[in-house]
Amino acid sequence: MTLGETYRMGKNILTGAGNESPAFDASCLFQKAFGFDRQDRILHSAEPAEEQRSGEFLRLVHERAGGRPLQYLLGSWPFMELTLAVGEGVLIPREETELLVYTAAKLLSGVENPEIVDLCSGSGAVALGLCSLLPNAFVTAAELYGEALHYLDLNIKSTGFQHIKSVRTDILNPESAAEFSSFDCIVSNPPYIAAGELQTLQTEVQKEPLTALDGGEDGLLFYRAIASLWLPKLKPGGAAAVEIGEGQAAQVTELFRAAGLSEIQVAKDFNGLDRVVAGIRKKD
């Protein structure tokens, strides 16, 4: 069997399984197994496929057809200009979350050596994205769960940023929050899916960690904790920015306002959905 035939077999398997992007997914998995990108695959399509690599490719294809996330199969995924390690136990970085990073960075323009905390850091996408935009920032990436911390530490090491550290912290616990002092900026992409909606998510999304998705009964559990335990730690003039789910803008805005923030803004993502709520702590 040739390389081209092998690729087409994988694409057809994914098509038959109802995959939404069979050509893209098959191409990514082909590159994982054979080391050929799309252009090389086309150039070498008539060459025979090595049996062992073909077997690995088809194994990956069948796992993808069964609903395992493509990102977990590849072991890494791009976010902004970074490539981050991902796998079971950590939320997959998503393009819409880049808006959170750019919003926070804009709010910090003009602040020298800002101190930032990223709550529910997961893979470190938001924290490391801010490091890439603000090289003089000092970033604390707070995460509770061991599997996510594993990827967080891997990504901190692989990206090589010097002014970032991971800490194991339960952001819902007042005693844990009390161990921190003050920050110029608080950012978070917390769990925000209402518990009753978890079973309605796409099959592959349900394979991501429940701890990174479940936002409590109404999806606002973590926003309440951020407002009550963490926003008081903002320095006067400091900024906070959080990613939100669909329909949560008004409620999170009110939580921010009640916590003493002003100049509150809601930013829409590339799909036109409310995605980020941000505000400034009033100066004394």
Structural overview:
With 284 residues, this protein is an alpha/beta fold. The chain folds into 2 domains: 3-66; 77-281, Rossmann fold (3-Layer(aba) Sandwich). The chain has helices at residues 3-16, 22-34, 38-43, 51-65, 70-74, 98-107, 125-133, 146-159, 174-177, 221-230, 249-258; strands spanning 76-79, 82-85, 115-119, 138-143, 164-168, 183-188, 234-243, 261-268, 274-281. Helix 8 (146-159) links the parallel strand 4 and strand 5 (164-168). It is elongated and about 70 Å long. The N and C termini lie far apart (72 Å).
Features:
284 residues; alpha/beta; 2 domains; 11 helices
Task: Write a concise synopsis of the structure shown.
InterPro entries: DNA_methylase_N6_adenine_CS (IPR002052), HemK-like (IPR004556), N5-glutamine_MTase (IPR050320), PrmC_N (IPR040758), RF_methyltr_PrmC (IPR019874), SAM-dependent_MTases_sf (IPR029063), Small_mtfrase_dom (IPR007848). By secondary structure, the protein is an alpha/beta fold.
Strand order in space, largest sheet: 5-4-3-6-7-9-8
Distance between the termini: 72 Å
Q: What's the mean pLDDT score?
A: 96
Structural class by helix and strand composition: alpha/beta
Give the C-level CATH assignment of the largest domain. Alpha Beta
Major sheet size, sense and barrel closure: 7 strands, mixed
Estimate the global geometry from the Cα principal axes.
Answer: elongated
Which blocks of ≥5 consecutive residues have pLDDT under 50? Answer: none
Number of helices: 11
Listing every helix as H and every strand as E from the N terminus to the C terminus, the arrangement reads HHHHHEEHEHEHEHEHEHEE
Number of domains: 2
What is the assigned CATH homologous superfamily of the largest domain?
Vaccinia Virus protein VP39
Helix content: 25-40%
